[in-house]
């Protein structure tokens, strides 16, 4: 049975227990959230190396990293390095969006090696097999979906919400249809004169997902690709369909999260989240960005992280990172790292704003180390310890400067914290603050340093549990 089916039957699974441990909550609360469809635990029964995690607005904000090859670049070795970089820098899930060669081999390798859930877009594989959008058949789609489920993919983007009647609504857009899956299906519907096969065969897909406990990530095929197109009739018409499909999947005991935009100006970000939560009955919202301006190619990890933080504060459960290469090229290792840094900051900032238990403890501990000029502790607590140490040592590399009461920004004479400390010495103006012990913090794992906390060491135990029917 699927996680949601077990949860509805009152069963707390080992995966739910592990999630509760990672989130610092009661396992019964996890069960209730999964049973209600308000949270998902993407955990394919064939993904033996998985360390279970949860996605839901009542839990810490999660971050997904997209990796994958293309027809023009990357290899399986490069994809392995990207996976390692993504997991070690705090990705909570990883999506393999490969469109080049060796798709099956890369996917199997990712599932075998990854302690975090792996997501895919099976429509890409169907297009590779068919050769052109118009030649895709329902049989090819279902075959590809079933194969990926058998390989252990934990969640799949299924573009089932784009319908024939939605296509004319995109005619006045600045950027048309920017979703790869959406454009493929629009071409298919126009060429074949039939309704979206992912929509017409949705219940068959539900049966495959239920067998392997794959989670739906319902794709936003008509997401806006520019701030001018945000919140238009096409986007919201598809969202209404995604709400209907969410309830169909729940009727089949299949977990669901819903994907969201895209490019959205700041003043419309919360509106998007609130509307999705209403239309989709609280199913977790998984957003790409959103990018709040269109003017910054090369810096879109920044333009999107702004919108991501706002979306998470408003209730989005998972953020899909955007790298500096967005719109420009296939991300490489450094781009993966930079994108994750921006999005871990966005997610953590939202958890602080939403008053997640213990989320600010990390900040307070680092601030204390900074005030005390404990440089080594400050580096260790940093989101990216290596980069923090490198930047400091560029100007003050000697070990003696690790005990110095200044850095090269202000120097010894103008360091504000040194001046403040000297003024307080021997006076009654003592700091009356209590610095948290991070070992005792209630914060979820993702809100504790270091970021890469994913643990696959218990994989062997989980394999035994599944073999004996305990999970």
Automatic annotation (TrEMBL):
Q: Where does [4Fe-4S] cluster bind?
A: 407, 410, 415
Which InterPro entries does the record associate with it? ThiC, ThiC/Bza_core_dom, ThiC/BzaA/B
Name the residues that bind substrate. Answer: 66, 95, 124, 159, 179-181, 220-223, 259, 286
Q: Which cofactor does it need?
A: [4Fe-4S] cluster
The record, for Gene3D superfamilies, names:
6.10.250.620, Radical SAM ThiC family, central domain (3.20.20.540)
Q: Which GO terms describe its molecular function?
A: 4 iron, 4 sulfur cluster binding; phosphomethylpyrimidine synthase activity; zinc ion binding
Q: Reaction catalysed by this chain?
A: 5-amino-1-(5-phospho-beta-D-ribosyl)imidazole + S-adenosyl-L-methionine = 4-amino-2-methyl-5-(phosphooxymethyl)pyrimidine + CO + 5'-deoxyadenosine + formate + L-methionine + 3 H(+)
Q: In which pathway does it act?
A: Cofactor biosynthesis; thiamine diphosphate biosynthesis
One family from Pfam that matches here is: ThiC_Rad_SAM
* Enzyme Commission code(s) on record: 4.1.99.17
**Enzyme class, first EC level, given as a word:** lyase
One GO biological process this protein is involved in is: thiamine diphosphate biosynthetic process
- The segments labelled Disordered in the record are 422-471
- Composition-biased stretches, type Basic and acidic residues, lie in 422-445, 462-471
Q: Which domain of life is it from?
A: Archaea
Cofactor annotation remark: Binds 1 [4Fe-4S] cluster per subunit. The cluster is coordinated with 3 cysteines and an exchangeable S-adenosyl-L-methionine.
Q: Where does Zn(2+) bind?
A: 263, 327
Keyword terms of this UniProt record:
4Fe-4S, Iron, Iron-sulfur, Lyase, Metal-binding, S-adenosyl-L-methionine, Thiamine biosynthesis, Zinc
Which family is this protein grouped under? Belongs to the ThiC family.
Per the entry, what this protein does is:
Catalyzes the synthesis of the hydroxymethylpyrimidine phosphate (HMP-P) moiety of thiamine from aminoimidazole ribotide (AIR) in a radical S-adenosyl-L-methionine (SAM)-dependent reaction.
Its name, as the record gives it, is Phosphomethylpyrimidine synthase
What organism does the record attribute this protein to?
Haloarchaeobius iranensis
The taxonomy runs: Archaea, Methanobacteriati, Methanobacteriota, Stenosarchaea group, Halobacteria
């Amino acid at each position: 049975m699927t996680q949601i089916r077990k949860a509805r039957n009152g069963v707390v699974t080992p995966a739910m227990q592990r999630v509760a441990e990672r989130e610092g909550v009661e396992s019964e609360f996890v069960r209730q959230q999964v049973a209600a469809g308000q949270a998902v635990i993407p955990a394919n029964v064939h993904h033996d190396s998985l360390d279970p995690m949860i996605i839901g607005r009542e839990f810490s904000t999660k971050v997904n990293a997209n990796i994958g090859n293309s027809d023009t670049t990357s290899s399986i070795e490069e994809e392995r390095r990207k996976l390692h970089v993504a997991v070690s820098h705090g990705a909570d899930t990883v999506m393999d969006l490969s469109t080049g060669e060796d798709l099956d081999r890369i996917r199997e390798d990712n599932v075998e090696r990854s302690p975090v859930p792996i997501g895919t877009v099976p429509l890409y594989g169907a297009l590779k097999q068919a050769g052109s959008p118009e030649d895709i058949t329902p049989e090819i789609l279902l075959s590809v979906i079933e194969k990926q489920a058998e390989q252990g993919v934990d969640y799949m983007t299924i573009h089932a919400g784009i319908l024939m009647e939605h296509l004319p609504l995109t005619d006045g857009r600045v950027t048309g249809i920017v979703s790869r899956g959406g454009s493929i299906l629009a071409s298919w519907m126009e060429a074949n004169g039939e309704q979206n096969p992912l929509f017409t065969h949705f219940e068959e897909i539900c049966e495959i997902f239920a067998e392997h406990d794959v989670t739906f990530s319902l794709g936003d095929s008509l997401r806006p690709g520019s701030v001018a197109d945000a919140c238009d009739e096409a986007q919201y018409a598809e969202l209404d369909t995604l709400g209907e499909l969410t309830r169909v999947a729940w009727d089949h005991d299949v977990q669901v999260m819903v994907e969201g935009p895209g490019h959205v100006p700041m003043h419309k970000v919360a509106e998007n989240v609130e509307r999705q939560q209403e239309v989709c009955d609280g199913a977790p919202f998984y957003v790409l960005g959103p990018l709040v301006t269109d003017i910054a190619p090369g810096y879109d990890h920044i333009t999107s992280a702004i919108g991501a933080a706002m979306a998470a504060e408003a209730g989005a459960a998972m953020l899909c990172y955007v790298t500096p290469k967005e719109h420009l090229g296939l991300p490489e290792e450094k781009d993966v790292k930079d994108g994750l840094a921006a999005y871990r900051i966005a997610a953590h900032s939202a958890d602080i704003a939403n008053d997640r238990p213990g989320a600010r403890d990390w900040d307070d501990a680092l601030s204390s180390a900074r005030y005390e000029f404990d440089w080594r502790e400050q580096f260790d607590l940093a989101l990216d310890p290596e980069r923090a140490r490198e930047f400091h040592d560029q100007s003050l590399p000697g070990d003696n400067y690790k005990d110095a009461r200044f850095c090269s920004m202000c120097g010894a004479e103008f360091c504000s914290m040194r001046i403040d400390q000297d003024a307080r010495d021997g006076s009654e103006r003592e700091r009356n603050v209590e610095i948290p012990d991070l070992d005792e913090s209630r914060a979820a794992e993702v809100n504790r340093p270091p970021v890469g906390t994913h643990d696959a060491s218990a994989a062997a135990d989980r394999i035994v549990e599944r073999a004996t029917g305990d999970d």
